[in-house]
Amino acid sequence: MNLEPTAADEAFRVEVAQWMREHLSGDFAALKFRGGPGDEEHEPALRKRWERELASGGWTCVGWPREHGGRGLSIEQQVIFHEEYARAGGPGRMGHIGEGLIGPALIQFGTPAQQQRFLPEIVAGREYWAQGYSEPGAGSDLANVQTRCWQEADGSWRVQGQKIWTSLAHESDWIFVIARCEPGSKGNKGLAFLLMPLDQPGIEIRPIRQISGGAEFNEVYFDGAVAQADHLVGQPGEGWKVAMGLLEVERGVSTLGQQMHFAHELELIIKAAKRNGRANDAAIRARIAQAWCGLRVMRYNALRMLSGGQIGLRREALIYKYYWSNWHRDLGELAMDVLGAEGSVMSDDPDVRPLQQMFFFSRADTIYAGTNEIQLNLIAERGLGMPREPRPAG
Question: What residues does the Acyl-CoA dehydrogenase/oxidase C-terminal domain cover (predicted)?
């Protein structure tokens, strides 16, 4: 990755910023800085309209190859797009799971028919996806999935089981599901990766109410629900390979957009500290400075992570989730300490509410997408080559 921007890159940055100023206006102005983690229930219908607005300007799937409907942008230009999108207050993406996860997985592992069926709808912002990975007994230990599937005589697949923490399943059209297709198999063996419509008999979606009051997470129950024969990605038993390939793209260029969102939250904290006088507290000032330094460390590690060409679980990427999740949790605590008493009661004040939501949601940052303990194991074993932690026999 070229860390020195070219004239073309600078011109592209101006183009993105101008488009955002012109289009994130009118009805869409209400979406600025909304719809992110902890706020994903905000105006879902309007945010779906925004996805189609992005698509009309060619701003969805910007890193996908052109032959699959994307813009084929360089890593440098993808970084610029995500940074300027976040800087302008672009809302949380309803199409994130389709564009950032299942789409790239289908480009890598899907059949031509699957690519032709699903990729154009993701690019156009017309279909939305949920992720069916975690279960009550298989969160960080994803290989412990117990949801099972079996093939019928006509080739279709039936699915029985439960998924949990399924973001925006109630607003999604499709879900990709990892399920056990070989009876008696254990761990990462004998799994299938299936694509399933959510609007069908045999699927029930139940909201999970959170401490912040929202319910963007869901439990999804499968009781003989159907996936068509041609909606199996890869071969039976290859589900783990597809699932891991999908997760490798999770730590890509959008991380720079995430950091711009974090920078906005830090700005809100500084604004609150200046408003209520806590900016004069030496300890608070030191913590704000430390948070700013942490953001810079995060940025340069992300650029280092992206500079290797192939995005995946390289050594630089292994530390990323552990670092940002702990940093963000600490930022939430700083926000509450800055707000003081005014942060102790739920508020609709636009200067208070975002910081309260951030505090509540950031408590989960070190748990979802791999707990701190799992992340440290990955760093030790894959990054540093240390002996594997003893596993239970059997």
Answer: 237-383
Q: What is the mean pLDDT of residues 263-274?
A: 94
Per-residue pLDDT at 137: 85
C-beta separation of 47 from 91 below 8 A: yes
Domains 7-94 and 252-383 are alike in CATH topology: no
Top CATH class of 7-94 equals mainly alpha
pTM comes to 0.85
CA distances from 347 to 5, 198, 320, 333, 361 (A): 42, 35, 32, 17, 16
Verify whether residue 250 is a known catalytic residue. Answer: yes
pLDDT of residue 290: 97
List the chain domain ranges. 7-94, 129-237, 252-383
Backbone angles phi, psi at 39, to 5 degrees: -135, 20
Pairwise CA distance, residues 159 & 142, whole Å: 17
Give per-residue pLDDT as tens, 41-87: 889 999 999 999 999 999 999 999 999 999 999 888 988 998 899 89
Q: What percent of the chain has pLDDT above 90? A: 64
Q: Which two tokens stand for residue 161?
A: 């089981």
Unique residue bearing structure tokens 């992340």:
375
Mean pLDDT (the chain, rounded): 90
What is the CATH code of the structural domain delimited by 129-237?
A: 2.40.110.10
User: Which candidate in 250, 316, 333, 381 is catalytic?
Assistant: 250
Q: Which two tokens stand for residue 198?
A: 């959510």
Does domain 252-383 sit in CATH 1.20.140.10?
yes
